[in-house]
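[Meeting: bench + compute handoff]

Bench side (C.D.) handed over the final construct sequence. Compute side (W.E.) agreed to return the predicted structure before the next meeting so the bench team could plan truncations. Sequence as handed over:
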Amino acid sequence: MGQGLGRIHYMDAMRAVLMMLGIVLHSAQVFNPANGWVIHSAHTFPLAGWLVEGIALFRMPAFFIVAGFFCLLSMQKYNARDFAVMRVERLAVPLFVCALLLNSVQTSILAGYGSLDFELFAYLANGKWMSHLWFLNHLLVYVGVGYLVSRAGWQLLGLFGRYAAAACSITPPFALITFVAVGHLLVFKVLGASGLLGLGVVAGTFDLYSIAWNAPFFVFGMVLGLRRELLDRFAQVSPALAVLVIGICAPVAAAGAALDSALLRVGADFLKLIAIWHAAALCFRVFQQIANRPSELMTRLSGASYTVYLFHHLFVIAFGIVLIHYGIGGLPGFIALVSAVTVTTLLIHQHLIAPSPVGRYLFNGIRTRNAGVVPVWLQRRHT
């Protein structure tokens, strides 16, 4: 990924870390005092709940922004056929292969453990077969819609990006983030009022509520790809101000969501979005400061992060059940679980996926001899 000033290293690093944080998030769920996950230990500790809430606030929003950014760059780089083939293979192949292989094993383990009442129709009709792979489904929708929109009005997109960049160049980051949060809320509420979101999960695959909630993050990432000035502006958020805003808005939003008043719930949704967007911007700021340089470690983690995410959920459940059985919980159990899953999934990538062309294609959607290298037939640019 290049630009006039060179490669934006922190975007690659951030994408890898955000994906690998799934290990920390789901491991913390096992020991979360709220006990709301598919498995849970009797030996909990408060930090686990805080980790879950904190990571969930920024992780997927920041990830979808990064995904939109990379999608826009790919659309600019490759011709229509190559882009479509590459994105479908990169997303759809691992989605269905892992849903069939890994998630089937995971479901069997949970059913045997007694934490899941398996019924085939509900498993398929409610989209439970996707489990943690739901984000790949969302990306397929966003990539498809974004591609159609861009092909229909690429010049309009460029014009929009240019005016947005000009407007935001004189707008403080706080005002920019607030404006984006307002737009997010309006789009979501308009879709909700249309009744579309009430359809729920369509064809056992498309959770319209979740797709609509996360779409503005992806679209915003595409806009950042159009104008790098906006990317720099977004990442200029004040860390102190962001922490203050998050610390105030997130708890108030959580309290307001339980109120009976529809107006107060709308206010709570707005405060929640303010907190989420500031958390995502803070994530960009942190990675821009600490990871915007070449790093062999981050290059390796970036190459392995897709595999790690696909496999981690199964191993968190499997290893978590073992720890629960032997009464190993609390902070020691959490550290042991994160460590075991991280090492196992990295070894799977290094020894089973990366060396194998079949493994790279089935689990990473890559048709190359060397993982991470774009094949020759995809080197043609737009004409």
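W.E. noted at the follow-up: Residues 72 and 264 are 37 Å apart (CA to CA). C.D. will use this when planning the next construct.
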